[in-house]
Amino acid sequence: MRCSKCKAYIAFDSKLKECPACGSPIDRKPYFEDMLNMLAELAADKNFIFWGIMNLIFWAAVGGVEFALGGGQLLNYFEQNLFYSLILFVFWGFIVELIVKANAQIRIASKTVILKERRSLRMFRLGTNLSLLGGLALSVIWVGIDNFFSHFPGITLVTISVICTFWAIEGMYFREEHFEDHRVRNFFILLGVRHPHPYRVMSAWYLSGITIAAIAYFGLIMFPSIFNSVYNTWFIQSSIKAIKGFLDYFPTI
Fold it and tell me: CA–CA separation, 186 vs 106, rounded Å?
């Protein structure tokens, strides 16, 4: 909850009657809102395994609804590609954990008062959430609404790529002086970033990689003969065969 006067964050379970920041009386919120705050704070403590399981349950429920409405593409994909689906659920677990923690309110050490955030952190949170929605929308445009449930890997990879691209762009502007602010430092430590330099380097590698890959791909498809020549080279075909051969050991675990 927030102080009605200075807008400082205060933990929902705080027993204080006055705001520790400005001393004004705390305006207690309705029970339902307190429960939502409690659930949000509990969610921030969960790891990727928990969120991977939650994603499995969520998509299974979506698949069940789709099946009940006369579809069944999503459940059919899970049945035929269970091993691949489990890998994607674990992958989703890592990303959802970071998204949830990016939306968590940062407390000080006493866990009683929640720090009033900088505008940059609020924009990071907003950008993360918009990237999630934008990635889902882009995946619908890419695979088509009719094929949405039959292309689960496409949904996953497109959505996560959009989110990671936003995080990488943010990382390129992240400097040591930003980390000197304890509010920023506490926020990024919660996300696993303990120093800005590795984050900036990884962001540069990621953006460079997707840029080179995009240029190479769109450059090759403009010249089909060159694309086919590269695709049919011994190295590419051997790599594809090796990967498929390895994954074929786990078709329907």
Answer: 7
